[in-house]
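FORM 7B: Structural annotation worksheet

SECTION A. Query
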Amino acid sequence: MSDKEFDLIIIGGGPGGYVAAIRAAQLEMKVLLIDDRQAEDGKPAPGGTCLNVGCVPSKALLDSSKHYHHIQHDYAAHGISVESVAMDIGQMIGRKRQVVKQLNGGLLQLFKANKIEFANGRGQLLADRVVEVAPNEGETYRVHGEHVILAAGSVPFTIPNVAIDGEHIVDNVGVLEFDAVPERLGVIGAGVIGLEMGSVWKRLGSEVILFEAMDQLLPVIDKDMSRAAVREFKKQGLDIRLGTKVAGAELVDGKVSVTYSEGDEEKTEVFDKLLVAVGRRAASEALLAEDSGVELTERGQVAVDEHCRTSADNVWAIGDLVRGPMLAHKASEEGVAVVETIAGQHGHINLDHVPWVIYTDPEIAWVGQTEKDLKEAGVDYKAGSFPFAATGRGLAMGEAAGQVKILADAETDRILGAQIIGPTASEMIAEIVVAMEFAGASEDLARIVHAHPTLSEAIHEAALAVDKRAIHKAN
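SECTION B. Predicted structure
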């Protein structure tokens, strides 16, 4: 294949790129999707970081480790006795790989069904929307697109004096592939990846210490919710050290020696494994030729307008490459919005209403603004909260930790933000997102009939609490 013309060329087959490709095919565009990721067997592995070494495999391990933990610590309260329990780490990792492989194959089938041309290799944008394709197998060639979407995703940040070796010092990829439970696991960064992976290996028996440079855990949520999360994680045995800065790590006699500062003190801890989870950056390197016409920001992201247009004609960029949250679902919706805009429709995504989730136990989810945001903006607001411990379903499930918090405009009552710590927070946040997207008020949620007994009753009661009329707690 050489010098081919396409209606749309997409570089990157993650949740932004592949979703855009499918939507474009539905709109009868001739599409080429380029993605270089391969599985261990050499076969194409579309789906990006999310499917292969991020969202999906981490959830598989979180679920496996949660089952193991529940059998050990929670089933006795239900009258279920288990004499002994053991975890086969190889089986757990194998199941995770199978989940990923099945989804990889499913995507390839979707590409075929939608008549999407797929190239397993690297793509680079040249001038005038010419894309150079370097296949994993075969010779390099060039194609041209009427439109091009850049969807190359992101890569992990590194930090000075801490070199990733993939065995003892790992990133989000290596932490998914341990062949045994490390006796001691160090984690640099107590964000989404650090908390989730720390939880997995703690449940399986590791002593886990998380080093977080910030003085507050998860400063993206309110302090009261952050404190509630810290309490739950400490109960689980996670050692979260806030206000600590790692100076370096080195391998000494097969162990990882970590030097860090806590206040004015210099300290050292020794681990079997060390996870570096300090965030991600746009994967813009080698994506663009000098004459591509696409401008980057100072942070290395692709500069775009509110519709994801770049500085080059008919070149678009989405997902982790651009401004906004680095989340798979945000990338997918941007991909759909861009394709529909190209097709002359009204593509749209509201970045203010993108939900965030951390899949720990309890889960943490949030959307919109926090109290800090509202105070800084000078917005007069009301807040209502309700604990899962006051719900019949939460107690019956043995999932009573956490609460729902809703923030609403003091004058209009429009919902401005919400935070949930608790069971299935990842699912329940959607109700609040829908309400916010339709400019709903806390009164709207308060007047919706919620089934009883359910966890979602906590949303109902939190909405009532905004006006100090919750039924099942003192206001």
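SECTION C. Observations
The mean pLDDT is 97. The first strand starts at residue 4 and ends at 11.

SECTION D. Sign-off
Analyst initials: ____
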